[in-house]
């Protein structure tokens, strides 16, 4: 990590062993870039999923096991909080330890590096996010609300039956901005800082948050620690994501709205990329929403903007691609500078 | 008996409580027009079949024209009282600023829902710190008026944070210039309208919600398929379309209110406020005064929270005015 700050990393330590910001002769940012390129080109092929599932599914199984064993409704709030915190730390330690063991024990030959790249590529989700959002935009542009609702139900936890065109577009753009951070920028950020173990640790934290980090009766205590840890892990990546979106949009308004409205958001992090997206496209996002049967108060991001529609989703996807190209360039510059 | 501190209009309970009262009773306990809209003939179809989609649309269109409101922002309901009760099931809010004093059911409904309530004379100044602001315009019982421009600023401020301004416009038909109906459907603005008061037909049970899409959809779902009866739709449509009746009624009510004030001033009492449908008067020992008036067969409205005010509706005719004037001499 220190080498990140020293800017120009040394390739070798004094005793001749490779420095920690390198895997073999490849700097970690370049390794991440390669993993990401593989994800963009191939995704996680269906035949592979059928054979071995997916690393996130493996983590999910571990978390589910702990949840069943250690989250007992009859326990008191503090006990459940602590048992959830222990679960979180154990899960993160196990998977991060495995990743670390792998990264130091794999030979630094081309196939050892390739295996790390393949593993890392499975934990970035830029392509699948794009595909999911396109599947909402397409029926919505044709005016087929039923199909668009079905597609949006796969990416957000809201009751899609309540959503009109603006609601569907809003949900997709919010999801695009938030998941650009969770699924792409944050994994690559932690990967670029700490290599495969960093990326895996982040994915473990984020998976824990999405599985047990809700405020429902069952998880408010058990998942409390995981949710806070996820907030910490996304603190920097969320702001980087906002910056990427704002710069890629060439709109001053994106910076203004992010700095003005992001803090009002219910999440300390997701508000940043969402506000930047709202400002960049000049649409309003967030706002009151229906959970269960009631409409909950929620501040607007860029409340002066217009309601988004199918065309806004297209513009959002376009902006997403430009922001990711910018991120790739940054990784490339960092990676080459380190070499 | 029903607690007379909560609502007026319970004449049956008064009859049994004050058996020796002077008859006939003069009911001035509500702010309802004493000269009801007269065209209440309904065709047999209004009752012999379920109300049709078109019947609802016709009534909404008549309301929209009368209020200068966007047709699409209106939801019909069986009276605004039910809307007040249902709003807390639609919106999830934690902190609310409610105008004080005002129609008591607002605070009560939200308190039941578990919201934290600030009762204040200046609710608009809380627009930055609460989730919702509730006011009546013009206000019941003191007739206080809020400028639409100030309300507009408040709801926009609330809307930015996803909050709401609820304006109970139960008496806004008296002065359409006070209404925010033209803004109907705007984010953060919820208006409640009432048919019975201005048109003098509270028994019909007709009211409306004017709100943004999300709130409208949720309320429509709560109200079910036939929330308003065929009779209410037909009478309501006729009344709201009758712009001539409305424009003649406004000065007539204002005149009657002026005469009501004169009666109180001649009796040596002070006017606090009110609308063209009721006056609020300062009376020492208001709770005792209420009793004295009741024994004279004059049913007025007193308030649990105020021992110095009575609210009085409009007398229907000279005879009722004289009865009131006579009774007031006993308050000296």
Approximate strand percentage of chain A: under 5%
* Order of helix and strand elements from N to C terminus of chain B: HEHHEHEEHEEHEEHEHHHEEHEEEH
Tell how many strands the DSSP assignment of chain A holds: 6
Which consecutive residue ranges of chain B, at least 5 long each, have pLDDT under 50? none
Low-confidence stretches of chain A: 1-9
Arithmetic mean of pLDDT of chain A: 89
Shape of chain B: globular
Strand order of the largest sheet of chain A: 1-2
Please work out how many helical segments of chain A DSSP would assign: 13
Question: Largest interface here, residues on each chain?
Answer: A-B, 19 and 20 residues
DSSP helix fraction of chain B:
25-40%
- Structural class by sheet pairing and helices of chain A: mainly alpha
Name the shape of chain A in a single word: globular
Number of helices of chain B: 12
Q: Report strand order across the widest sheet of chain B.
A: 2-9-8-7-6-4-5
User: What do the pLDDT scores of chain B average to?
Assistant: 93
Helical fraction of chain A equals: 55-70%
The share of residues in extended strands of chain B comes to: 15-25%
């Amino acid at each position: 990590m220190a080498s990140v700050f020293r800017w120009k990393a040394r390739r070798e330590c004094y005793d001749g062993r490779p420095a920690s910001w390198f895997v073999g002769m490849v700097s970690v940012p370049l390794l991440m870039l390669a993993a990401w390129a593989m994800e963009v080109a191939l995704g996680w092929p269906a035949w592979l999923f059928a054979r071995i599932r997916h690393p996130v599914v493996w983590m999910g199984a571990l978390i589910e096991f702990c949840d069943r064993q250690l989250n007992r409704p009859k326990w008191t709030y503090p006990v459940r909080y602590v048992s959830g915190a222990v679960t979180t730390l154990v899960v993160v330690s196990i998977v991060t330890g495995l990743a670390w063991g792998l990264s130091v024990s794999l030979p630094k030959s081309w196939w050892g590096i390739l295996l790390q790249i393949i593993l890392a590529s499975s934990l970035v989700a830029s392509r699948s996010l794009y595909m999911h959002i396109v599947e909402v935009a397409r029926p919505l542009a044709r005016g087929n609300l039923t199909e668009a609702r079905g597609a949006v139900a796969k990416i957000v936890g809201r009751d899609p039956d309540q959503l009109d065109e603006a609601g569907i577009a809003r949900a997709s753009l919010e999801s695009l901005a938030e998941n650009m951070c969770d699924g792409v920028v944050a994994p690559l950020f932690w990967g670029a800082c700490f290599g495969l173990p960093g990326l895996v640790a982040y994915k473990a934290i984020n998976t824990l948050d999405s599985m047990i980090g809700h405020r429902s009766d069952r998880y408010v205590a058990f998942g409390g620690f995981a949710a806070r840890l996820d907030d910490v892990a996304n603190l920097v990546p969320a702001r980087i994501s906002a910056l990427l979106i704002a710069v890629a949009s060439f709109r001053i308004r994106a910076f203004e709205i992010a700095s003005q409205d992001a803090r009002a958001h219910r999440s300390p992090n997701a508000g940043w990329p969402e506000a930047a997206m709202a400002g960049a496209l000049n649409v309003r996002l967030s706002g009151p929403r229906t959970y269960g049967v009631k409409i909950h108060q929620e501040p607007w991001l860029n409340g002066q903007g217009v309601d988004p529609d199918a065309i806004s989703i297209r513009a959002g996807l376009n902006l997403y691609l430009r922001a990711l190209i910018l991120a790739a360039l940054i990784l490339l510059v960092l990676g080459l500078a380190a070499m | 008996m029903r607690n007379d501190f909560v609502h007026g209009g319970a004449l049956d309970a008064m009859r049994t409580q004050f058996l020796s009262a002077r008859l006939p009773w003069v009911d001035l306990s509500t702010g309802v027009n004493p000269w009801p809209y007269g065209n209440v003939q309904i065709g047999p179809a209004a009752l012999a079949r379920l109300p049709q989609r078109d019947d609802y649309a016709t009534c909404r269109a008549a309301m929209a024209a009368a209020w200068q409101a966007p047709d699409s922002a209106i939801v019909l309901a069986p009276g605004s009282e039910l809307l007040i009760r249902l709003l807390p099931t639609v919106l999830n809010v934690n902190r609310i600023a409610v105008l004080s004093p005002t129609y008591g059911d607002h605070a009560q409904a939200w308190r039941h829902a578990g919201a934290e309530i600030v009762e204040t004379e200046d609710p608009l100044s809380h627009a930055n710190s609460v989730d919702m602001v509730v006011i009546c315009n013009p206000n019941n019982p003191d007739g206080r008026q809020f400028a639409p421009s100030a309300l507009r600023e408040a709801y926009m401020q609330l809307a930015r944070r996803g909050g709401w301004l609820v304006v109970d416009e139960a008496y806004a038909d008296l002065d359409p210039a006070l209404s925010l109906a033209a803004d109907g459907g705007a984010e953060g603005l919820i208006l409640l309208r009432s048919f019975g008061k201005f048109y003098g037909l509270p028994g019909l049970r007709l009211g409306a919600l004017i709100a943004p899409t999300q709130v409208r959809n949720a309320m429509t779902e709560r109200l079910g398929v036939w929330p308003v009866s065929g009779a209410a739709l037909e009478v309501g449509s006729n009344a709201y379309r009758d712009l001539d009746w409305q424009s003649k009624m406004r000065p007539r009510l204002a005149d009657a209110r002026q005469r009501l004030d004169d009666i109180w001033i001649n009796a040596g009492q002070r006017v606090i406020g009110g609308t063209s449908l009721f006056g609020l008067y300062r009376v020492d020992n208001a709770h005792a005064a209420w009793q004295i008036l009741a024994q004279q067969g004059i049913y007025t409205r007193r308030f649990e929270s105020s021992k110095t005010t009575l609210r009085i509706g409009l007398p229907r005719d000279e005879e009722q005015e004289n009865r009131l004037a006579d009774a007031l001499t006993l308050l000296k």
